[in-house]
Design goal:
This is Putative ABC transport system permease protein. By secondary structure, this protein is α+β, with helices and mostly antiparallel strands. It has two domains: 188 residues, no CATH class; 131 residues, no CATH class. Helices cover 55% and strands 16% of the residues. The strands form two sheets. Strands 1, 2, 5, 6, 7, 8, 9, 10, 11 and 12 form a ten-stranded mixed sheet that branches. It has a two-stranded antiparallel sheet with strand order 3-4. Helix 3 crosses helix 8 and helix 11 runs antiparallel to helix 12.
Length: 413
Amino acid sequence: MNLLENIREGLRSIKANMLRTTLTALIIAIGVTALVGSLTVIDGIQSSVNNSFAGLGANAFDLRNRDIFKIRKDGEKEKNYPQIDYREAKMYKEKFGHSAIIGLKVNVSFSVEVKHDSKKTNPNSRVIGTDDNFMDIKGYKIDKGRTFSANDLQYAVNVCIIGTDIVDQLFEKNTNPIDKEINILGQKFKVIGLLEKKGSMMGGGDDRVIFMPLESGRKMAQGKTLTFDIVTSVPNITDIDNVIEEARGVMRIIRQDQIGEPDSFSIERSDSLAKQSESITGILRVAGFGVGFITLLGAAIALMNIMLVSVTERTQEIGIRKSLGATPYLIRLQFLIEAVVICILGGLGGIFLAILIGNLFAQLLMGGTASFIMPWFWMSIGIGVCVVVGLFSGIYPAYKASKLDPIESLRYE
């Protein structure tokens, strides 16, 4: 009996016990679905995060307020760093604008209720004042309408650009919001642009945003202490480290930081957020692989038990084969092939389910911003694991079958 004949015999045995084979393959399929599906969900989440950061580019960095230093050391008092104000932000843009593209932003409010006619949004909309560069650097794209003109920015015109969530809450489906007026903190603003859907890891925060000219934001928040964020985009990514150090020196002069003292502001590269998210998803992949492995281990034990039952049921068949000249090696091979084939059949079904379920969960978790993932690497890993599980589950039953005495096997009832 050659290898090809063993494969045919294994397939015939599987076909003869279709119900048992189906249930066994289903056990394996569930294990593979848990393994490949969880990893597909994680890859889908990562794709959404990458899409969110793609517009930022790796050639940008932010200058922000530094957090209060709260750890006391040798009796020292807490260090309270002053916020970046409007004068400092404008001075930085004037001094450093020749070396890079500078964008300014001010957070007017994080919890605003916006109104239009009788409709209003949830009180969780963000109102941000920006200059002419900020939106481009941060990857916000206009879907309809226009961006701010020089006149809007210079004269603090009450115009705004709104995100998709704001549009959905304030306007009917077939209504064009362009040139309509909305009420923000008691003031009327004309909608001049609609943002493309951006999505966010934190549940769509970038789609609940309202942009207005920087001076309009300052005017609206008159009397409040505002803090300004500065984003700097470098034309050539190879120069970013040098530009960051140059920007640090300029900002230290503007902020009058003393020599030997730490920076009174923080610098954060855009690609550092993407790297942090990749490290988090790396940990999640390990956890997902662990969960899938444990599930497959249970499936392997169940398959081994079923194969042992199969050996017992086919004792007479084994005795007949041995009496006709089948060697222990061929008997072992037949049962191993049968176990591996069952695992591969279950694995194929599990991979199909994993692709559907994994992408579905990724879309639900990321609010529809995740890309459809075809996890070729995890699919190949899944098939490889199925072969290993089949060998692991079939070795002992195959060894037991090969050691049966042919005479005793023929007498078995």
